[in-house]
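Quick one, tokens below. Sequence please?
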């Protein structure tokens, strides 16, 4: 088994919060690999041990739930190409989006066993040149790197600061019901992400109406984890200390450009991985029973389900 050992403090938290038992991790991974080999539509997928541990942690070590997430994740790779295809970091379009610094995990956590803090800056792109799905593709790419590298993220989850400064109607109009369904499915049923809190900053005019509509689709747990601070940065600092934030947010931990440069290089360093992973997807023509398609997963006949989180 090739899995990075956890520091003691994270090992203790993993045991208490997500049912991780280091003695049985190897057998859990083996069980998942055997299961994948037996699935006609997934048998060509051969993930690393570290990748599978991220899914186990995101499923609180329920093997059945983990299998469901893995199946859906590799299905989405097939049926949602706008998120999961053509992910060469050296592609000129992706290079431009990476250099915008739209999704930036911060360097430090509040505690040694704390969740990873990330900043999502939606208003940094030109909606006449790019689509919101392009930003989401890059955010998912960085999330996958964290799944492989960041033990705080996989064990303790993440806290996300959503900055919607400069978000106008042209950006909001790209947040369609179809796109919303795909994003919610990614986080609810596929990616092993545990969102611990969400902090919304710099809300534009008309935000309350859009936010009320969005909240209608969320489960109670997630609703309780969302804080709308607008420009009340002091309220943010009570939950995420200044010392961890970039200077542009009144913090003390470097500048956004430094973080952006770091993540551009980090994603570029994963170029071979992303290019190879492009082949790792479900073959829906071989799925037992009815194949899953865009229409069966997100069709107009479907309705929003409430998003529940752990």
């Amino acid at each position: 088994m090739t899995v990075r050992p956890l520091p003691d403090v994270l090992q203790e938290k993993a045991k208490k919060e997500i049912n991780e038992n280091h003695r049985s991790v190897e057998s859990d991974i083996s069980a998942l690999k055997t299961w994948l080999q037996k699935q006609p539509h997934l048998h060509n997928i051969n993930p690393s041990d570290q990748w599978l541990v991220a899914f186990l942690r995101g499923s609180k070590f329920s093997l059945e739930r983990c299998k469901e997430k893995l199946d859906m994740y590799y299905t989405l790779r097939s049926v949602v190409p706008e998120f999961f295809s053509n992910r060469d970091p050296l592609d000129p379009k992706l290079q431009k989006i990476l250099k915008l610094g739209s999704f930036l995990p911060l360097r430090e956590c509040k505690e040694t066993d704390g969740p990873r803090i990330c900043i999502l800056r939606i208003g940094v792109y030109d909606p006449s040149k790019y689509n919101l799905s392009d930003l989401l593709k890059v955010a998912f790419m960085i999330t996958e790197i964290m799944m492989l590298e960041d033990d705080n993220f996989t064990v303790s989850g993440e806290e996300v600061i959503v900055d919607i400064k400069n978000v106008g109607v042209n950006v909001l109009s790209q947040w369609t019901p179809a796109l919303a369904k795909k994003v919610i499915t990614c986080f609810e049923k596929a990616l092993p992400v545990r969102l611990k809190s969400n902090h919304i900053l710099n809300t534009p005019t008309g935000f309350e109406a859009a936010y009320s509509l969005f909240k209608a689709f969320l489960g109670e747990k997630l609703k309780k984890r969302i804080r709308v601070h607008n420009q009340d940065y002091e309220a943010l600092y009570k939950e995420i200390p200044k010392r961890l934030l970039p200077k542009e947010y009144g913090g003390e931990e470097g500048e956004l450009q430094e973080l952006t440069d770091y993540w551009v290089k980090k994603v570029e360093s994963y170029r071979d991985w992303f290019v190879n992973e492009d082949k790792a997807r479900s073959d829906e023509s071989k799925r037992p029973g009815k194949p899953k398609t865009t229409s069966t997963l997100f069709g107009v006949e479907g309705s929003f389900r409430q998003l529940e989180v752990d």
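Residues 185 and 307 are 9 Å apart (CA to CA). The beta strands are 103-105, 116-121, 158-163, 195-201, 226-230.
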